[in-house]
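Review box. Two proteins, two foldings.
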Amino acid sequence: MSKTNFDALLDAGVHFGHLKRKWNPNMAPYIFMEKNGIHIIDLHKTIVLLDQAAAAAKQIAKSGKKILFVATKKQAKEIVAERVQKTGMPYATERWPGGMLTNFATIRKAVRKMATIDKLLNDDAYNNLSKRERLQISRERAKLEKNFGSIADLSRLPSALFVVDVVKESIAVSEAKKLNIPVFAMVDTNSDPRDIDFVIPANDDAAKSIALVMDVICASIDEGLAERKLERDKKPEDQTKAEKAVVDVDDELESEVED
């Protein structure tokens, strides 16, 4: 059964594209018509493609892998952060630091620095520092939290990227493609869908449109995580321990590579 329906998409304004003069010709297959100089997205295609994307996201979550959500535009960041945070998936809504994917080891060092500062804050030696030094440390910790706090649990490259606004997040999409990381994206009529593996034709500017798509995707992720937990609970204890040992070894190897 479809995760959503035509009326819900219509009510959320998912069908409203950009002005005709701003269109990207590669979006032609997803455009239903032009009305008053504005392109109208074909919602029947949106339903099919959104459901496909949701099914794929569910399988990624069920397999225990991570999807990194990227949405730095003003009208999307809070919506995405609120919904993705509940799923436990990583997200970037403040800014996209260049090299987030292609220079992942450096990003991980910044994340580990947060952990180092946290240990210092709980150490008696911290109280012996001058007021100025403590202020500098707290400011650095706050800056790191703002930029990397939402990806603190991302210990290895994500298995997929989810982007709101392909044009705005072009650098993120480019990095993902270089590393052959699949990209899910809300693609408006002014965007080029050719580099996107899971195209979701949709209005990427309206808050209601973004919220609806995120609700569908995050609900599917929650389903995948729930099914994964159910399957793991059914597995024999020795098999579960063996899987955990493999994960621990992978983490150790990755840590050695980063160092």
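Next protein.
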Amino acid sequence: MKTAFFGLGNMGLPIALNLLKNGHEVSSFVHKKGEGPKALSEAGGIIAYSACEAVKGADVIFTIVPDDKALSELMLKENMHEAVKEGAVIVEMTSCSPETVIKLADAYRDKKVEVLDAPVSGGVKAARNAAMTFMCSGAEELFERMKPLLSQLGTKLFYVGKLGDGKRIKSLNNLLAAINAIGICEAANTVKKQGIDPKIFEAVVMESSGGSTQLKNNFMRIIEENFTPNFSMELMRKDVGLASKLEEGIYTPLSDRALDILKEGAVFDGENYTAVAKLGNKNSL
């Protein structure tokens, strides 16, 4: 199958490489500096001289770019609309607002181009191992048709409802992850202060009511002060902000405080979002 892929970042590159491993043609272009385009080219992908050139003839177009603005600037331009093949499918994986993916579907309806809202979860490791979770929304028939392809990229495929609901669920999922991670950061700092063996703490709590995926994946990284970005502070703040908009008019003190903390964490935007553990430590600023 001929595909186009936009967004060769930490998550996008391994997804694109898995498409290649499964025998699909993958074309992209140099959207921004980074190792992604070089790695894709070395694996057999095609780096086009423009985004419009990359989509020509593509049956499926994958997009996983940073935000609403990036998606709009990429896909909602007239020349891109003209370049996309009639009847193609856009698999939109960006963590952005539901309004933008609905606008995308509206913009391409005249060309019988279908849009599957398909944000993902699982992190870089899951992307590499083709073990991601997909939260798909839009036409259920389209979801069923795309399942064989998505199954080459993920192991948990959920159909969640009307177009945009994938985005809504993804932002709320990341809100819950952020709230949990902030609590784990506080626990990690307390474990250090109290001289508790962190490995014993992790082992006990993982078998107790406080255990979680966040604890399993991030607790020891926080203890070791390893804030190499799997998911950056900036991206988490963006996603929690999207969730906050969904919650307007609802009493959400934890969500509000989590967003405030992530805003304070902007000084660590080049690091993982768990770098909020460093807030209050003047020596780290």
